[in-house]
Write a structure and sequence with these properties.
This protein has helices at 14-17, 23-38, 49-66, 77-89, 102-109, 114-127, 132-149, 156-159, 165-172, 175-183. It is an all-alpha fold. It folds into two domains: 1-110; 129-184, no CATH class. Helix 3 (49-66) crosses helix 5.
Length: 184
C-alpha cells in the first residue's frame, strides 16, 4: 500500500511543500501511514535526510493535525523526538535546505522538557541563518511556557491533566497565542 522511499527520498514528501488545507485532508491522505509509523514501520527511512524528514513529519506534525485537541495528537512525540535526534546526529538536518530544516527541530519545540526547548532555540539560531528569525518567536514562546509552567497548559484537557489556577489564568488571558503576540 505504501511506497518505500527511493534514493531521492520518500515519494510522498510532496506533503512538505503542499498547502494541505484541512486536518481532514491530512487524515484522509496520511492517517494510515501515521499509524504504521507509530508501530515502527518506516524506521529505516531515518537513514537518509529526505526520508528521515518524512518520518519525522509523520510522527510529529501530522498527528497534531489529524487528532487535534486529543491525547492521540501527542502519542508519537517520544518516537518523533528519538528520530529527530538520530537524524540530527547523522547530520541530516544540515543536508535539507531551509525552511524545511525546521521540521527536524519541531519535536524539540513540542517537548515539555526545558533542555529540549533550549536546544531547539540554539539550533534555530545557529543552523537556520536564512529563515530562523521567522521561527524564533514561536521557539521563544514555547520555551517561555515551559519555563513558566513546566508543561504546556493547553494540552491539559486532552491529556486529562488538572489545570492549576495560574495555568487557567494564563489560558483565560489568551494562552499561547497571547504569549506569541507579545513577542512580535
Amino acid at each position: 500500500m505504501y511506497r518505500q522511499p527511493c534514493s531521492s527520498g520518500f515519494s510522498a514528501l510532496a506533503a512538505i511543500s503542499l498547502a494541505i488545507p484541512t486536518a481532514t485532508e491530512v487524515a484522509a491522505r496520511f492517517e494510515g501511514m501515521v499509524a504504521a509509523a507509530r508501530r515502527g514501520a518506516f524506521s529505516d527511512w531515518i537513514l537518509s535526510p529526505r526520508s528521515g524528514l518524512a518520518l519525522i513529519l509523520l510522527l510529529d506534525q501530522f498527528p497534531r493535525h489529524i487528532w487535534r485537541d486529543t491525547a492521540a495528537a501527542f502519542e508519537s512525540d517520544a518516537r518523533a523526538m528519538a528520530k529527530a535526534k538520530r537524524a540530527m546526529s547523522l547530520g541530516h538536518d544540515m543536508k535539507i535546505a531551509e525552511p524545511e530544516r525546521q521540521f527536524f527541530y519541531l519535536p524539540l519545540m513540542h517537548s515539555e522538557s526545558q533542555a529540549d526547548q533550549d536546544r531547539c532555540m540554539r539550533l534555530i539560531l545557529t543552523r537556520m541563518p536564512l529563515t530562523g528569525a521567522a521561527n524564533l518567536p514561536h521557539a521563544v514562546a514555547h520555551r517561555d511556557v515551559i519555563r513558566r509552567f513546566g508543561r504546556f497548559p493547553f494540552r491539559n484537557a486532552a491529556l486529562g491533566r488538572d489545570t492549576t489556577e495560574a495555568e487557567q489564568a494564563w489560558l483565560d488571558a489568551g494562552g499561547y497565542r497571547a504569549a506569541e503576540l507579545a513577542l512580535a
